Amino acid sequence: MKDKRLFALKETERTVVQVGHARIGEGFCVIAGPCSVETERQTIETAKAVKEAGADMLRGGAFKPRTSPYAFQGLGLKGLKILKKAREETGLPIVTEVVDTRDVLWVSEYADALQVGSRNMQNFSLLKEVGKARKPVLLKRGMNSTIDEWLNSAEYILDAGNPNVILCERGIRTFETYTRNTLDISAVPALKELTHLPVIIDPSHAAGRVSLIQSLSLAAVAAGADGVMVEVHINPDEAICDKDQALTPGQFAGITKRIGMLHQFMAASA
Ligand code: PEP
Ligand code: MN
């Protein structure tokens, strides 16, 4: 069996993944947007608000991997068209999830980066397919996966010919129930030792509640992450999906301001 370990840290430089005008792996990248694309108004207003607050990229699911088959599954193509419009109006590049190998090619025509969600981290057919795509891939950590398993999943994408992989820690399952998941902050410095790939944190799915997101975002900066991805909704009470963790635009603006200050301090003291 070949073992090329393309993810492994070599003498070469760290990978910087370019998504539109955003460069992940250089400075600190903030990705924000709704859990799911619900309506044109909700998505475009959120996009404008997060751009105004300093976001570098817009997130939003058109295909949602839901625990229950009866929960909102996303708007599909209609959602992608809304995201495209949001990009046209704000200039923000878009990351959106793809859940099915059959959708990778055509979703790539709308997305600036493809997200592989936690539940699909070891969907090896999907990993091979996004590995053939010409768009960067944001690979979330499986909620029950070790760092080694996660890196092997990244390896599938790299080995299939796509060098642009961003790793996203989003919390793992532990015995704790107060938080939705347990943010493995140590994954950040561990990955910095193990790989040249950029690493970001998703505090929203880790915490599952708004009150903890600022602290976890600042912890991401302090730990040396390359960015964060957070969920923002113009009206969290009405969010169809993940409302308990949805920030208002105002809360998001406060967090980005503090992220900026801490990142500056870290850079100056490095
Ligand atoms: C998401 O980011 O939209 C999502 C579904 O997250 P996760 O795959 O981490 O649960
Ligand atoms: Mn969500």
TrEMBL record:
Sorted UniProt keywords: Transferase
Signal peptide start-end: none
Ranges where the DAHP synthetase I/KDSA domain occurs: 24-255
GO process terms (BP): aromatic amino acid family biosynthetic process
GO MF annotation terms: 3-deoxy-7-phosphoheptulonate synthase activity; aldehyde-lyase activity
Underlying gene: aroF
Coiled coil: none
EC number: 2.5.1.54
Database matches in InterPro entries: Aldolase_TIM, Class-I_DAHP_synthase, DAHP1/KDSA, DAHP_syn_2
Descriptive protein name: 3-deoxy-7-phosphoheptulonate synthase
SUPFAM superfamilies from the UniProt entry: Aldolase
